[in-house]
Amino acid sequence: MKIGIKRINRVTVTATVTLTAGAVLAGSAFASAAHAAAPPTPKIVAKGGFVMNDGTGKTLFTKSADTRRATGSTTKIMTALVVLSQKNVNLNSKVTIQKAYSDYIVSKNASSARLIVGDKVTVGQLLYGLMLPSGCDAAYALADKFGSGSTRAARVKSFIGKMNSTAKSLKLTNTRFDSFDGIGGGNNYSTPRDLTKIASKAMKNSTFRSIVKTKSTKQKVTTKSGGYRYMSWSNTNKMLSSYSGAIGVKTGSGPTAKYCLVFAATRKGKTVIGTVLTSSSEANRTADAKKLLDYGFKK
């Protein structure tokens, strides 16, 4: 009987040791798998970057995220947000295109929606002209329409004031605008974090979302003589065609700003939104954005 008991004990000990060793090995395997699954932090060319989960607001990536930089035409996200935030905004209200808008484009050598003097273009159409071809003439027309004052200069100043008031209401301490389109006098700046927050706010507006995900559009506008013409606009944001799930938002460029992009994409119900500022080329800003989106979806 004693021999039997000893044998049973040996078997029990052996089994326990085997189970324990197995558990350790399994635990190590799970730990290794978890460690391997953690995506490596991407390296980007852009001098500044920020990415967040748009649903939760959780920060997913930062690189000099709070350093103030020139923003180029990504400024126009705020231009659109101010327009769409106006009480009872009428997107079908018509705006007559003034010579001042086209003169401005010529004098600044600025990106254009090719608006024609005398044409009557709706507010909704101007927003497409603003966000797709990045029309600075469309930005001017919207600032003139939605600013307050008896002169064009006063109305533009008023509109830029609304842009800054909106930034303040969003508690953005590193953002300031001195223009309606990003072609400022040296005092137009934001940060990757702030711009992402502006875009996140704008993307909550269904009209804005619909516009910025549009690859191209043809809009029928009324001519000075009462006839009509079609304006065709293509989106400067190539991510819409080259990144699965891309839904916006806005490109930007300039002598100081270099190449900028505010981007967003949705996959499996998760939306990732972010910004890269001061990248070295159009190709690099796109590559930066794709890297950051990939990383954001894995986080």
Detailed description of the structure:
With 299 residues, this protein is α+β, with helices and mostly antiparallel strands. The protein has a single domain, classed as Beta-lactamase, CATH 3.40.710.10. It is built from ten helices and nine strands. The protein has helices at 2-37, 76-84, 99-108, 123-131, 136-146, 152-169, 192-202, 206-212, 239-242, 282-298; strands at 48-53, 59-63, 94-96, 120-122, 216-222, 228-234, 246-254, 258-267, 270-279. A five-stranded antiparallel sheet has the order 2-1-9-8-7, sandwiched between helices. It has a two-stranded antiparallel ribbon with strand order 3-4. Strand 5 (216-222) and strand 6 form a beta hairpin. The radius of gyration is 27 Å and the shape is globular. It comes from Streptomyces globisporus. Substrate binds at residue 250. Keywords: Carboxypeptidase, Cell shape, Cell wall biogenesis/degradation, Hydrolase, Peptidoglycan synthesis, Protease, Signal.
Task: Indicate the topology.
Elements (H helix, E strand, L loop, with lengths): L1 H36 L10 E6 L5 E5 L12 H9 L9 E3 L2 H10 L11 E3 H9 L4 H11 L5 H18 L22 H11 L3 H7 L3 E7 L5 E7 L4 H4 L3 E9 L3 E10 L2 E10 L2 H17 L1
Antiparallel strand pairs: 1-2, 1-9, 3-4, 5-6, 7-8, 8-9
Helix pairs in contact: 2-5, 2-6, 2-7, 3-5, 4-5, 5-6
In percent, how helical is the residue content?
40-55%
Largest sheet properties: 5 strands, antiparallel
Number of domains: 1
Q: Give me the count of strands.
A: 9
In CATH, the architecture is 3-Layer(aba) Sandwich
CATH topology: Beta-lactamase
- The first-level CATH class name: Alpha Beta
Numbering strands along the chain, what is their spatial order in the largest sheet?
2-1-9-8-7
Coarse morphology = globular
Active site: 73, 76, 134
Family: Belongs to the peptidase S11 family.
Protein name: D-alanyl-D-alanine carboxypeptidase
GO molecular function: serine-type D-Ala-D-Ala carboxypeptidase activity
